[in-house]
Write a structure and sequence with these properties.
The chain has helices spanning about 20-30, 55-70, 80-85, 110-120, 150-160, 165-175; strands spanning about 1-10, 35, 45-50, 75-80, 100-105, 130, 135-140, 160-165. The chain is of the alpha+beta class and about 180 residues long. The chain folds into 2 domains: about 1-75, Alpha-Beta Plaits, CATH 3.30.70; about 80-175, Alpha-Beta Plaits (2-Layer Sandwich), CATH 3.30.70. It has a 4-stranded antiparallel beta sheet with strand order 2-3-1-4. Strands 6-7-5-8 form a 4-stranded antiparallel beta sheet. The longest helix has 16 residues, at about 55-70. It is globular and about 50 Å long. The mean pLDDT is about 90. Pfam families: DUF1697. This is DUF1697 domain-containing protein.
């Protein structure tokens, strides 16, 4: 069995309310093992046979629509990928842990789209941005709440959905994995 984390986008924000108990139950009904939630924002740890994560992502999107009438997606990563989301983030250990984020992307962003997004954002704020494997690394420098580098801005420029977690949360999730 492989240990995974499903990072759900938009859970318990913007009106998408869902208890973690209900989310755990949905995973258990799908016969995932050792299901555990971490923080009430849609982080679900589970064990399952090793397989490509995009198939799991599709299953979870369907599950959320079918069981909870929620349109969202889940970025699914195994333990090594979660570790890399912290270790390979070039801003880890440089910026403040609660300002340094990894945004998990639904697919690999194209270099050209990333370069255009960075250029479009250049005059909008002090954030530092780097591209990773199916991820984007961001140091929000002055905080996420005041940043003009929003999820909507990123998703429009890259043409794919994303869900973000800060380094502090990822370290906590990794410790539980």
């Amino acid at each position: 069995m492989t240990r995974y984390c499903a990072f759900f986008a938009s859970i318990n924000v913007g009106g998408n309310r869902l208890t973690m108990a209900d989310l755990r139950y949905a995973f258990e009904r799908e016969e995932f093992e050792n299901v555990e939630t971490v923080v009430a924002s849609g982080n679900v740890l589970f064990d399952f046979d090793e397989r490509p994560t995009d198939g799991l992502e599709d299953l979870f999107a369907h599950m959320m629509r079918d069981r909870f009438d929620l349109e969202t997606f889940a970025a699914v990563r195994n333990r090594d990928e979660v570790r890399a989301a912290v270790d390979e983030n070039p801003f880890t250990g440089i910026g403040k842990d609660h300002y340094v984020h990894t945004l998990f992307l639904e697919r690999q962003a194209e270099q050209g789209a990333f370069d255009k997004m960075v250029a479009d954002h250049a005059t909008r704020g002090p954030e530092k941005i780097a591209l990773g494997p199916r991820s984007l690394y961001v140091d929000y420098v002055e905080g996420v709440g005041s940043s003009r580098l929003t999820g909507a801005f990123i998703e429009r420029r890259l043409g794919c959905r994303a869900t973000a977690r800060n380094v502090r949360s990822l370290a906590r999730i990794l410790a539980k994995m």
